[in-house]
Structures are given as C-alpha cells and as structure tokens.
Amino acid sequence: MENVISRRDRKKVQILNTLVDISMELFVAKGFEETTIADIMKSADLGTGTFYNYFQSKEDVLKYVLTQKFDQAKNSLERLIKSTISPQEKISQILVILGRIYEDNRQLFGLINHLGPNQPPHGPEFKDILVSIIDEGQKNGDFRKTIPIEIVIETFMGLIKSAATSHSKIPFMENLNYKLDLFLNGLTEKNNK
Fold this sequence. Notes:
By secondary structure, this protein is mostly helical. Helices cover 67% and strands 0% of the residues. The chain has two domains: 1-56, Homeodomain-like (Arc Repressor Mutant, subunit A, Orthogonal Bundle), CATH 1.10.10.60; 57-187, Tetracycline Repressor, domain 2 (Orthogonal Bundle). It starts with 6 loop residues before the first helix and ends in a 6-residue tail after the last helix. The chain is elongated, with a radius of gyration of 21 Å. The chain has nine helices and no strands. Keywords: DNA-binding. This is TetR/AcrR family transcriptional regulator.
C-alpha cells in the first residue's frame, strides 16, 4: 500500500525544510550569533511565531541539521558493520565515510561550538559501532589486544580532528589517509621480530 502524505503534512515538511535551509544560509553568511530568529523568518517570508512551531531556538535548528547528518552516517556505518570485510577495512571505510561527511559540511561543523559544552547529537551509537569493530578485530587477531579499546577509539576520533585542523598543505582526504595508515599500522599486530 502506498504511503500518501497529506497536503497539510507536505506543507509542514516544506516549511521545515525552508526554515532549515534559510537558517543555515544565514548562519554561514552572517554568523550564528548575529543571525536572529526574526532574520530567519523575514527571509522565509513567514511570521516569527511559525518558527516556534518547529524549533525552540537557533541551537535547535543546528542540532536538527547535525542529527540529520549523523543519521546519514549511521545508516552507512550500520551497512558497513554487517558486511563481511575485515575489521581493518571496516575501520578504513568508516574514516573515509566520516571524512567525506566532514569535508562536504565543513561550515556546518564549524558551527558546533555554538551548541555549548554538550557533545553533538550523535549519541552513543557511533561509539558502539566502533567498539564492536575493534572488539571483532581483537578477537580474530587482526588488531593488537594489548591496546585498550578506549585508547583505540580516542585515537581514531582524533584522526579527523587532526586532519581538519592541520596546517599542512596536503589536502584534507589525503592527509586523513596518511593518518589512517599510521593508525592502522599501530593497531595491527606486527610479527617482524
């Protein structure tokens, strides 16, 4: 049976998308702090009260957009975790997926500091995915068992941040791939003694 969306619901989705698109354009163009809800609604050609039917604050708009991006990444990662490729290849592909998402959304991720001291809205699911892959790799001998999973995760998460803040002239994805190579060489067991 076909899922038919009512005209009213289509209008709600259209307004939501308009609010998000205009908000993000203004956050990037004017700056997050300088953009007001009145600015957003004026650009959207809607009454200010309409904003509050969808969001409670500018921060909520930002959280909504970040959640959408993390959900897209999560779906890709869940497909990846079910694949039969090696844990090492899974780790490589995760970093490439996350790196591309970051590279395509640099301006968005530059706004995260406006959410305050809380973590971005991706929840514990991402960490759980990494833990399961690292655990799988340690159990089947692909990864060293002598390194605590927490350290592996911290180091892995630092790779994107390190590539993103690098002052090197090496392009972001190439920089990230070099760091991934170093990371995996340290994570995998070497029996060259």
